[in-house]
Input
Amino acid sequence: MNPSNYSDTRPAPVDHPSAVTAETARFVAALRHADLTTPVPSCPGWTLADLVRHTGSVQRWFAALLHARIQEPPRSREVDLQLPDRHDGYVDWLTESATVAERAFAATDPNLPMWAWGVDQHARFWARRMLFETLVHRADAEQALGLRPVIDRPLAVDGIDEFLVNLPFATFFAPKVAHLRAPDSTIRFEATDGDDTWLVRLRPDGFGLDTDPATTSTADATVRGTASDLLLLVYGRLRLDSDAFTHDGDKDLLTLWFSNSAF
Output
């Protein structure tokens, strides 16, 4: 799949800019009375403070990319983060980071052609990507605090699609993705709380999301769970052997996928 040839033909039930604001508010609510030195098991070596700093930094950097209308890969990630010196200012700073993003969204036509590292070469890529950076790290924070993340189903469905569509292009920051090769093998992800299905086709030269309805009836391996749990699974926040999932088919193929796909 060539990113420059991509056109978004899927329905878009999610307002990504608004959802960034809402997910940041959920993140902030979870953190309001938390100890930011708490370790985050799903991000080894990080504390909640690291998680907040990363999420807010990504929001501000993506906002800078939108304002710059970038047409090629950026040469620098430097941006004025205005990060507080003390952890007790981090939570409010994260709220302000979402406001910075809101301003960038408001000033940018989502259909504006822009460079993006993934498939969709338009400004809307960055709003969608920012949403799932924020949502998944909100879930990381909640899990670190002993809470079970609740993810709205439309967001989960959109997030699975966003992850699988863009994953083939993620090798520059997730190098294990390059190992996802197999002789014409397929993995189906099936949401048990709706009729959403995703078929990933692995080939000797790579892999990608197969969007041809005629090819989704059979697969070499199938994983079933709610859309919310599947989203956390593909991101490596839940394990395949969790009670949340059932699966059948080629176990070696599933091992290959889950050993190399999460980021």
About this structure: The chain has two domains: 14-150, 171-260. The first strand starts at residue 185 and ends at 191.
